[in-house]
């Protein structure tokens, strides 16, 4: 058990820190959350800066244009960029963390050459068309149909929870190509150009008042057959291959941010007198234990993936289960610290409290995570 | 960074599990329960011979020369097996009390704060805040103690009257000793939490009701998943605290391991249904020990205050120390 970083890892951290200190002051001001084109421009500008400095696709394999960094280097990168206040992955999320790795793993040489470099350079943005109104946790129940017509698929249906749909160039789309096959076996993975005729994007407003994602309606959209990655009807496996790439680093930046927020909450409580409330003070102390443990669990999972060559995957479910609830508790404690100010959305943390309500739902609800933990880790029988 | 068990550490852990499987199997556990706990001197010497108590003494002092990371692995196994006796106190006393390192002496600890003293009957020495009680001081201490009808059948308890005989509050313990006591106790809690998770999963995978294994019902499997989601963060916290020795990190380890042990035992009991409420099932032994350990060395309230004290004012998140990062 060794928590010290190697000399090479420390050197990586030092060089990254120097670069961040040099470039972050030159970033343009953050755009308004409602200005999607500006958000895209901001995020892709940052991606281009990473690309020019040799940090783009850090965790991608080298033969896909990435840096082939170790999981620990990736952890350091996410930790240091968060601590330095660097931009988030933002609009580049799907391209860098899902669609790109999928193309890298399962695409043809031609597909890799077409789609991967623009993601790394920040030239193209991807969105994700997986969930449907009637296929959420049960993703494989998706019904968006794709019918072959010559060299095209003709796609009709609707997708939901698609972030960055308004500004994306491409959509990684799961479609049903064989309606008669068992549900997991009739799905294909397509790269759909977002400027194709027949696509309608309708923004969805969240309970926090902002439009973080959209519904995407597809009315006989023509997608070339050559845009299919993997074999026809093999899309479920193609998608899962990428999801299992997760190397324990998924929440590094968020845990770092939570610890910073917790420190700031303590400082605010000391300032406004709430610190004298032993119940609240101890509650903040307990959150300190939780986030410290989550940070150590992150290091544990990353080290494990480094040893095994990167297959923890399901260990991430244990982490997400605990983390998502704890982060909600963080903002519940923040409301206690804020007191009456918790109802003022201009106060720091008030809006975060609302946003945090999605954590136990997005990317697999806590109930689904418990099923995964119970069945795939603990080996309990499948059932209802 | 390689925050994983080394090959040697894995071997140490499996060696300890094998040893306990041989010298403290379920029959001996249940025999100890019927006896009402107490220390089995033969077992104590076997633990001593295996290096359990001398683990962290330097080799030139006759010890094994290993550190807290190795110690927590052994105590985790002890917690799994519900091994009785003042394991933590005797381990802490190695090098302080003659014979403790070898398992020849049985040493318990009086933590003060009104907490009953465990395993006092037949103890050769008692650790107290100001040092060690032996001989006449020990005799006077024992004379002033009266037995308690212990809730935990594996741990005899004595109440010590007043603050006589050197039994001060646990805060007066030297910080390092108290921190190590808390950490090793947390490791026992971790082992118990992992064990009750296994017991719950085994039962849920064998017991049928309504024509199905109860583990196929989400209401049951979600309890099991939550047990693992308590155990694994606690494990990371305990192991990390053993590596850094940082007091705030030890407080986190104790708090989370106490929680995991107590709440997992509760859920394990629930999953066992009526059988879980019987004397014959082992579940209650885990719960009672977990409750007792949670009150020892560092309580939840104390740990939370230490952890609160470790927060803000705004400062570098990781103290600027890569070793602790």
Please give the structural blueprint.
The complex is a heterodimer of chains A (384) and B (325).
Chain A: H1 7-23, H2 36-53, H3 71-83, H4 93-106, H5 109-121, E1 126-129, E2 145-149, E3 152-162, E4 170-176, E5 187-193, E6 199-204, E7 213-224, E8 228-229, H6 235-243, H7 252-272, H8 278-308, H9 315-338, H10 350-355, H11 366-377
Parallel strand pairs in A: 1-4
Antiparallel strand pairs in A: 2-3, 3-7, 4-5, 5-8, 6-7
Helix pairs in contact in A: 1-3, 3-7, 4-5, 4-6, 7-8, 7-9, 8-9, 9-11
Chain B: H1 7-23, H2 26-35, H3 41-49, H4 68-81, H5 87-93, E1 107-109, E2 117-118, E3 125-128, E4 131-133, H6 135-143, E5 145-148, E6 157-160, H7 175-204, E7 208-209, E8 212-213, H8 218-244, H9 247-271, H10 273-276, H11 283-294, H12 300-309
Parallel strand pairs in B: 1-3
Antiparallel strand pairs in B: 2-6, 3-4, 5-6, 7-8
């Amino acid at each position: 058990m060794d928590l010290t970083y190697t000399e090479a890892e420390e050197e990586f951290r030092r060089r990254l820190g120097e670069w961040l200190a040099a470039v972050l002051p030159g970033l343009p001001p953050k755009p308004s959350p409602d200005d999607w084109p500006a958000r895209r421009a901001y995020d892709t500008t940052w991606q281009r800066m990473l690309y020019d400095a040799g940090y783009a696709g850090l965790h991608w394999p080298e033969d896909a244009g990435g840096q082939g960094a170790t999981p620990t280097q990736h952890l350091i990168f996410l930790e240091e960029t968060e601590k330095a206040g660097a931009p988030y992955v933002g609009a580049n999320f799907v391209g860098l963390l899902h669609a790109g790795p999928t193309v890298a793993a399962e695409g043809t040489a031609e597909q890799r050459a077409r789609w991967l470099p623009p993601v790394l350079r920040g030239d193209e943005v991807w969105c994700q068309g997986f969930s449907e109104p009637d296929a959420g946790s049960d993703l494989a129940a998706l019904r968006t149909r794709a019918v072959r017509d010559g060299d095209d698929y003709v796609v009709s249906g609707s997708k939901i929870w698609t972030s960055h749909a308004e500004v994306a160039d491409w959509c990684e789309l799961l479609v049903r190509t064989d309606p008669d096959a068992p549900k997991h076996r009739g799905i294909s993975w397509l790269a759909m150009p977002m400027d194709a005729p027949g696509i309608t994007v309708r923004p969805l407003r969240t309970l926090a008042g902002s439009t973080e994602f959209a519904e995407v309606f597809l009315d006989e959209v023509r997608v070339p057959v050559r845009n299919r990655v993997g074999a026809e009807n093999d899309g479920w496996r193609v998608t899962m291959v990428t999801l299992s790439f997760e190397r324990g680093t998924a929440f590094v930046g968020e845990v770092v941010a939570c610890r910073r927020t917790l420190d700031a909450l303590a400082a605010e409580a000391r300032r406004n007198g709430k610190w004298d409330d032993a119940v609240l003070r101890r509650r903040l102390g307990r959150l300190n234990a939780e986030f410290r443990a989550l940070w150590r669990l992150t290091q544990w999972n990353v080290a494990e993936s480094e040893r095994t060559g990167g297959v923890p995957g399901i260990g991430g479910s244990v982490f997400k289960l605990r983390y998502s609830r704890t982060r909600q508790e963080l903002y519940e404690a923040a409301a206690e610290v804020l007191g009456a100010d918790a109802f003022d959305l201009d106060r720091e943390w008030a809006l975060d409290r609302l946003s945090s309500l999605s954590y136990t739902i997005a990317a697999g609800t806590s109930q689904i995570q418990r099923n995964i933990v119970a069945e795939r880790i603990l080996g309990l029988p499948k059932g209802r | 960074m390689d925050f994983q068990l080394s090959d040697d550490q894995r071997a140490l852990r499996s060696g300890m599990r094998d040893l306990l499987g041989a010298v403290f199997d379920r029959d001996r556990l249940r025999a100890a329960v019927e006896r009402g706990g107490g220390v089995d001197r033969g077992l104590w010497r076997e633990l001593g011979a295996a290096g359990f108590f001398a683990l962290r003494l330097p080799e030139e002092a006759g010890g094994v020369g290993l550190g807290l990371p190795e110690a927590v692995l052994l105590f985790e196994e002890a917690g799994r097996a519900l091994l009785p006796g003042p394991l933590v106190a005797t381990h802490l006393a190695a090098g302080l009390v003659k014979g403790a390192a070898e398992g020849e002496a049985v040493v318990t600890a009086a933590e003060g704060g009104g907490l009953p003293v465990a395993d006092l009957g037949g103890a050769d020495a008692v650790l107290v805040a100001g040092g060690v009680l032996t001989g006449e001081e020990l005799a006077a201490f024992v004379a002033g103690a009266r037995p308690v009808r212990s809730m935990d059948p594996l741990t005899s308890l004595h109440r010590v009257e007043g603050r006589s005989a050197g039994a001060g509050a646990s805060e007066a313990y030297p910080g390092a000793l108290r921190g190590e006591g808390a950490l090793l106790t947390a490791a026992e809690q971790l082992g118990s939490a992992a064990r009750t998770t296994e017991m719950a999963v085994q039962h849920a995978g064998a017991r049928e009701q309504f024509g199905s294994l109860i583990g196929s019902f989400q209401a049951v499997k979600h309890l099991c998943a939550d047990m693992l989601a308590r155990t694994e963060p606690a494990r990371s916290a305990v192991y990390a605290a053993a590596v850094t020795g940082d007091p705030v990190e030890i407080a986190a380890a104790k708090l989370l391991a106490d929680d995991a042990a107590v709440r997992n035992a509760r859920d394990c009991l629930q999953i066992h249904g009526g059988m879980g409420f019987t004397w014959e099932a082992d579940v209650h032994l885990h719960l009672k020990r977990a409750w007792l350990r949670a009150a020892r060395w560092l309580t939840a309230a104390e740990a939370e205050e230490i952890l609160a004290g470790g927060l803000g004012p705004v400062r570098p998140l990781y103290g600027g120390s890569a070793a602790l990062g």
